[in-house]
Design brief:
The longest helix has 44 residues. The chain is mainly α and 213 residues long. The chain is elongated, with a radius of gyration of 31 Å. The chain starts with 20 loop residues before the first helix and ends in a 10-residue tail after the last helix.
Length: 213
């Protein structure tokens, strides 16, 4: 059979074939249709056509009469719902990453109270300790997040090429968005903001704690 056109099917990964009613009946051995597209003439009243088709089908046909604008709106709504769910998952993963790194840094800072108390005993001002803790946390977060970002970009490149090869879906290139760098900055900034609270308390640890070590 002659191929009239090909297009990317974003709704169903295995793809779909559109046939005329005559070819469908010949190949499948039945003329019963599950969907029928009606093209109106120029200037026709679409609402009247829909009413006429609905009356001709009757209430027992099991088919629904839907105009092109409404059908397009439903497809867009379905796609938007899927993208919204992916966005929620992405937000949850980002939040979990921020909390996990903040908890790890908080635990590391809290376990070093004895060493910080020794610095206090040597005359180091709490403000200097806070600056020291902030510098260390920034270096640790920067190194960890940068490593994760590079690994994530590499994974995205591999998955994009796989999708493009297997499904034929159009995939945006890595340079099409600055979102990875934005997420890197957000994670580092939020984690540092959370760590400032235990860092402030740790910097004011009593110098007498050094004698317990």
């Amino acid at each position: 059979m002659r191929v009239a056109a090909t297009t990317t099917n974003l709704a169903w990964s295995p793809g779909a074939i559109f046939l005329g009613a005559r070819d469908y009946a010949r190949l499948w051995g039945t003329g019963t249709a599950t969907a029928l597209a009606v093209a109106t003439r120029h200037g026709a009243n679409v609402a009247h056509v829909e009413s006429a088709i609905r009356a001709a089908l009757g209430p027992a046909s099991g088919l629904e009469v839907v105009g092109a604008p409404l059908r397009q709106a439903r497809i867009d709504a379905l796609a938007s719902e899927g993208l919204a769910q992916l966005g929620e998952i992405s937000t949850l993963l980002l939040t979990a990453a921020i909390l996990a790194m903040a908890a790890a840094l908080t635990s590391a800072i809290w376990q070093r109270r004895g060493a910080l108390a020794g610095l206090r005993l040597s005359g180091v001002h709490p403000r200097r300790l806070r600056l020291l803790l902030l510098t260390e946390a920034t270096l640790m977060l920067g190194a960890g997040c940068l490593t994760g970002a590079v690994a994530g970009l590499y994974g995205e490149l591999v998955i994009d090429r796989y999708l493009e090869h297997v499904t034929g879906f159009p995939v945006a290139s890595l340079g099409a968005s600055l979102r990875p760098f934005e997420m890197l900055a957000v994670v580092v900034a939020m984690a540092l903001a959370i760590v400032t609270v235990p860092g402030w308390f740790a910097s004011r640890v009593s110098p007498t704690l050094a004698f317990n070590e």
